[in-house]
Amino acid sequence: MTNRFESEMFRCEPPGGLDDATLAYIEAAESGFEDLRQIAAQLAGLLLLAASGARSAGPHHPMLAVAADLFDSARDATLRLTPRSPLARHHHWHLKAAAEKLAETLALLRIAPADSESITAPTQRLTSAWQELGHASRALPGFDLVDFSQSCCAEHRPSARLAL
Amino acid sequence: MATYSIWVLEYAYIPEMPLSALVHGEHNKGTCKLPYGYTLLKSAQHTILIDCGHDNAAYGKVLADNSGVVNWQPPHVVMAEIGVKPEEITDVIITHAHFDHMGGLALFPNAKFYIQERELSRWIWAMSLDRRFRWLMKAADPGDIIRCVELARDGRLVSIGGDMEDVFPGIDLRLASDTHTAGSQYVVIRNDGQRESKDSWVITGDLVYRTENLHGGAPDDPFYRPVGMGVGSQTNMVLALHDIVQAAGGDLNRVIPPHEARLPERFPSRLSDKGLQIIEIALADGAESYVGR
Question: Is B165 left (phi over 0), alpha (psi -120 to 50) or beta?
Fold first, then answer.
């Protein structure tokens, strides 16, 4: 079953299926993508605390250090990837762009006071990072931005992940 | 005297959903339709939405391919069936932070959004955990948090700290902690405006999927049976079901689960030319019916 309004727009697999080089790249890139997604979520949470005026918000919040640690390893993993097909190189380009925007967001959050006035710039960087992750998720199969398996559409079908 | 007209508006659906996901323990009992819908309340003063659906631009492929969600229609198409435009929505009550209830934040440009503070804070807490705990984040979209940041910065996000009476005249919010999600809330509409209402309706969010959650499949000897999915306590879900039924004056027909496919059997309704249900739960005094009753 397909969604008649969207399925063609989002199609990312070539008609003949994916070549071995792309499949190998997908397998190697998956955990880095998930880490970048997790970092984006953590930074969004920090920004929401600041935007809401929470007292715990600010550069001292422990989640910022958690996100920074995870980012270091995720960025290294992303840079180590060796895409060997046009599809993989396209995906990798978006992944690197996302990492770059996340680095900028982290840098701003480390120096910014936690108030609603100062969140505009890091929010813009984070939004850009999220958009890059969205582009990456649509560029190849196997990279989902949202895990739907605990939602009310969860158990309709097994996840459409690739069998690698 | 009825203050609010109430419509449940279907905006997409899954044709075949395993019953076990909706009613706890109903394994290998087949499938049923699962509508996706939001609830619109309209009075002379307010146009309020309960939950705001999801934006197909963000999720369309994943939902179509993995979950079989079909026939998504945008709010301007869905709401036109009752003569309302998305721009006219002034307030949106978010029952919980799953993508299909909160993913449409950007589709209502003039609205304020009301969500339990606990729902957001526990969400943020879950993000801080090691990836081995990522199950706690399932069905939540970090993109929605980014949108929440912008809403909060613009003064359009209201975080609610527990139960709140008369958030709008005759409308109460009730927190159901650690149930379907950490900070789920349900909405009680006292449509006669009285504190001891004789005309109350409860919009449940995902605390109830189907009537079986309220009577357990045994209407003559009813028992509470939680939904099939949640991150909180089953016991809390059962206790919340009791509170919901009490808030509805003990009348199960006044408990409105927007995911219940059989609502059209209980209330006046019609199918739009897009194949989606418009269900008229109540009409305010003097209001026009949009289902031809």
Answer: beta
Residue for token digits 């560029």? A139
Q: In whole angstroms, give the CA distance from residue A132 to residue A153.
A: 26
Tally A–B CB contacts below 8 A: 185
Phi-psi region of B30 (alpha: psi -120 to 50; beta: other; left: phi over 0): left
Q: What is the pLDDT of residue A10?
A: 43
The nearest alpha carbon in chain B to A125 belongs to B146
Segment A5-22, tens digit of pLDDT: 333 344 456 666 889 999
Buried b (16+ CB within 10 A) or exposed e, B269-279: bbeeeeebbbb
CB spacing of B72 vs A5 below 8 angstroms: yes
Residue B218: other Cβ atoms inside 10 A: 10
Angle, alpha carbons B32-B37-B43 (nearest 5°) = 140
ipTM of the complex, rounded to two decimals: 0.74
Residue B267: partners with Cβ closer than 8 Å, 6 or more residues away: B279, B280, B281
Nearest residue of B to residue A132 by CA position?
Answer: B143
pLDDT digits (tens, 9 = 90+) for B73-107: 999 999 999 999 999 999 999 999 988 899 899 99
Contact A123 B68 (CB under 8 A): no
**For residue A11, what is the nearest residue in chain B, using CA coordinates?**
B61
This prediction has a pTM of 0.87
Residue B42, classed as helix, strand or coil, is strand
d(CA B1, CA B286): 10
CB B257 within 8 A of CB B210: yes
| Alpha carbons B189 and B172: distance in angstroms, whole number | 7
CB contact under 8 Å between B124 and A49, yes or no, is yes
Q: Which of B152, B145, B131 is nearest to A44 (CA)?
A: B145
The rounded distance, in Å, linking the Cα atoms of B64 and B72 is 10
Tell me the CA distances in angstroms from B81 to A34, B54, B67, B73, B276, one per residue in order.
40, 19, 27, 12, 10
Tokens of B91: 């307030």
Q: Which residues of B touch A51 (CB under 8 A)?
A: 148-150, 152-153, 157
CA of residue A3 relative to chain centroid, distance: 24
CA distance A120 to B149: 9
Chain A residues with beta carbon closer than 8 angstroms to that of B137: 41, 147
Pairing of strands B47-50, B31-42: antiparallel
Query: Looking at the complex, does the CB of residue B143 fall below 8 Å from at least one CB of chain A?
Result: yes
